[in-house]
Amino acid sequence: MPTILEILNLSADYLAKKQVESPRLNAELLLADILRTNRIGLYLMFERPLQEPEVNAYREYLRRRGNREPLQYILGKVEFMGFELKVNPHVLIPRPETELLVEEIIRLTSGMETPKILDIGSGSGNIAIALAKSIEGARITGIDRDAAAVETSRNNAILTGISERVEFVHLDVNEIEGKLEGGFDIVVSNPPYVSHNDYRTLQAEVRDYEPAYAVTDFSDGYSFYRLIPPKAKNLLNRPGRIAFEIAQGQSAEVSRLLAENGYVSVNVIKDFAGIDRIITGVLE
After folding, report:
1. pLDDT class of 50 with cuts at 50, 70, 90
2. d(Cα 136, Cα 240) in Å, to the nearest integer?
3. 130 φ, ψ (degrees, to nearest 5)
4. What is the pLDDT of residues 58-108, one digit of tens each?
5. Pairing of strands 77-80, 83-86
6. What pTM does this model have?
7. What is the Cα–Cα distance from 13 to 76, expressed in whole angstroms?
8. Per residue, what are the HEC states of the chain?
């Protein structure tokens, strides 16, 4: 049977031919999962031969990744802000850029004793859970239109030990009137912001595997930035705050939409690549 080093070299070449980004890293993470170790553990046993069941399981992982199924769905997990979340094809895979949105909410709630926060389109629960873990006394509600996503987020809340501090509700933002008690200090959302035209050009991992309704609005990319601000006005305290993640090139239009709905002190925050990524506004 091949050694770990031999099969890693072959697997990295295979994934590279399949145009998988970072093929060696992917090969190592997949094999580490099969062997229930980490990358350092792999390095310490390069000369160990693999057993036939391990080879067969690894081949299946490689087949899936070669078909461009996201690494996170194959492993069933992802790290976000230092903690692990379970993910599956019912939820968008959390991105590092969204950590900036969480960090901004943490900053905005500084000095609040028991901030009440609504996360619209909560998906895996990454934003709501990160806020609950980071803000002492916060009361977080997450809503999502997909029942399977809500189940995933509830399980993640249990996994991370904060299920008593965050609530996830199966609810479509289009039907939010009269379904939620108001009094929120902040409404936050990382909505589907990829336009229908751009969606068709996305990498296969996103286009073919992640839930389309969590990626695109099937329109011009601004549907939820039009929808959420007026609805949030009926849910927010005064002063209240709204915060969004946005795509590259959207800051000017989203700023206009916020101002049109009466939000002031609109602020745009860049990500580490210098791209406008987070936008906030105040409802006085």
Report:
1. very high
2. 19
3. -60, -40
4. 999 999 999 999 999 999 999 999 999 999 999 999 999 999 999 999 999
5. antiparallel
6. 0.95
7. 24
8. CCEHHHHHHHHHHHHHHCCCCCHHHHHHHHHHHHCCCCHHHHHCCCCCECCHHHHHHHHHHHHHHHCCCCHHHHHCEEEECCEEEECCCCCCCCCCCHHHHHHHHHHHCCCCCCCEEEEECCCCCHHHHHHHHHCCCCEEEEEECCHHHHHHHHHHHHHCCCCCCEEEEECCHHHCCCCCCCCEEEEEECCCCECHHHHCCCCHHHHHHCCHHHHECCCCCCHHHHHHHHHHHCCEEEEEEEEEECCCCCHHHHHHHHHHCCCEEEEEEECCCCCEEEEEEEEC
Pair 48, 6: CB distance under 8 Å: no
| Residue that the structure tokens 């286009």 belong to | 207
- Which superfamily is assigned to 81-283 in CATH? Vaccinia Virus protein VP39 (3.40.50.150)
Task: List residues bridging with 194 in a β-sheet.
Answer: 216
Cα–Cα distance for residue pair 7/36, rounded to 1 Å:
17
The residues, any chain, with a CB within 8 Å of residue 228's CB and separated by 6 or more, are 120, 173, 187, 189, 191, 242, 244
